[in-house]
Amino acid sequence: MTAGPVNEGPAVPVPEPVPLPGPVCVRVPVDGAGLATSVQLPGGDGPFPAVVLRTPYDLRSHRDEARAWAARGFAAVVQDVRGRHASDGDWQPYRYEEADSAATLRWVRGRSWSDGRVVAAGSSYAAHCALAAVAGGDPRSRPDAVIAAVPALGLAETARESGGVERLSARAGWWAAHGDRPDSDTAALDKALVRDPRLLEHLPLVRLPERLGRPLPSWPGLWAASHRTAPAPRAPVPLLAVGGTRDPFADDTLRLWRDWHGPARLLVGPWGHGLTSEPAPEARPGHRLRLGALYVRWARAALEGALGHERRGAVALGGSEHWYPAPHGTGGRTAWPFGVPGGLRLLQGDTFVADPERPVRSDDLSVERRDVPDRALLVTPPLPRPLDLCGAAGAELCATAVTPTADWAVRLVALDPDGRARPLATGIVRRSDPAGEVARFRVPLGLVAHRLPAGTRLRVEVAGHHFPAHARNPHTGEDPVHATRLTASRRSLRPDGSSLLLPVVRGGRPIDPVQETCS
């Protein structure tokens, strides 16, 4: 995850049929705090539907976005969340957003320029704010529709992968940039790493702020957070979930869409956390969407009740010009067995050592040859023809660890015919199997949407660490957040019984992503 704010919605210039008035800046009184709020009204006579965006990233950074919404007939309400930038109060991530979002929506509906219809929208943390009020019992506190892009759903969801492993570099970057301060320094972690390249190796992890050199009293609470469930609307509120295949929260975006109780649409492109401002190398011209225009079209359809009640969505196929229907589950995957002709040939590491003092790095795709391997390494023959993958990938492992707890990281890499490595997917889970006993388990690899050209080889790495993206398992049985001692873990991988599970597209028909999401 990027440390700073992301492109949170429409920012494309649009023709203005009538001149827009200037924004009005007010303070919305909410439970003892005045929340700084900018209101950009359309030209002409109201009342108008409203779009509400509550952000910790400074309402001033959304001026163009607000004008784009207003030019299309929406009153655009942008608000600094409690304790951030121009708003009063105490900044505690995720603590006040449900109540503050509900109060803000009630305030909007009480304005003379409001026609009572409200769309809550936002990206990353602001997506959490947009979703926070959907479970409220008061209909005036609930949005009529929600646009949630690259959603950072909560403390627990952002702190750990679904398999229990701590997300280290992304959380350290966000807290260094935004934690326990009213403003932001988006380069804070990068600057700290220049001064102290081994900063993220600090033990215990819970005391990392001491080495960072800045108090972060909310940092321990991040790791103490218990798992939350996805927001459950009391009424069938329409949802548009938007994500990127390179976004670290892509799985959360899909899970939100699949579990939503109401009309749900999904759009996933070949993007990172910054959406279209952060295209992946596999993006093609056919994946260039004007997200702002799409958001407005979807919002109008949602408010007018024109969306069908079925769950639909579109996923861009990287490396091609196409979009395919969003997958609804994990079925239909093809198994590529380990250790058999035509499958994945084991090059090294049927026995390897996962050493937290020398962990496999998440930011380096090269493989260093060692006398004692640090990972299992497998590779396929060159693909005889192009291969389209669209859906959830995974790995079935039959393996052994000699320590009481072990993380298992699986990285899928595409090797171009010229040998260049490109990351496709990564998954990591924490296991506590009896030491030395063979265990069979699955490692989810998340959404893969990619066309692989003929001649591509697939490389699979099975390791015990994926650092610094994820914290190092100390292998002592201690919680990695509080551990101060590290030890190595000897591992064995049994190719017999292990396989790679790929969502191969067979006879798929491309779709129009705008039509699929806005009808």
Describe the structure.
There is one protein chain. With 519 residues, this protein is of the alpha+beta class. It contains eleven helices and 23 strands. The protein has helices at 63-71, 97-109, 125-132, 155-159, 169-178, 188-195, 208-212, 219-224, 250-259, 291-303, 513-517, and strands at 24-30, 33-40, 48-55, 75-80, 114-123, 145-149, 239-244, 264-269, 271-272, 275-279, 311-316, 323-325, 334-337, 345-348, 351-354, 375-379, 387-401, 406-415, 421-431, 439-452, 457-463, 489-493, 499-502. The strands form four sheets. Strands 1-2-4-3-5-6-7-8-11-12 form a ten-stranded mixed sheet, sandwiched between helices. Helix 9 links the parallel strand 7 (239-244) and strand 8 (264-269). Helix 2 (97-109) packs across helix 3. The longest helix has 13 residues, at 97-109. The model is unreliable at 1-17 (pLDDT under 50).
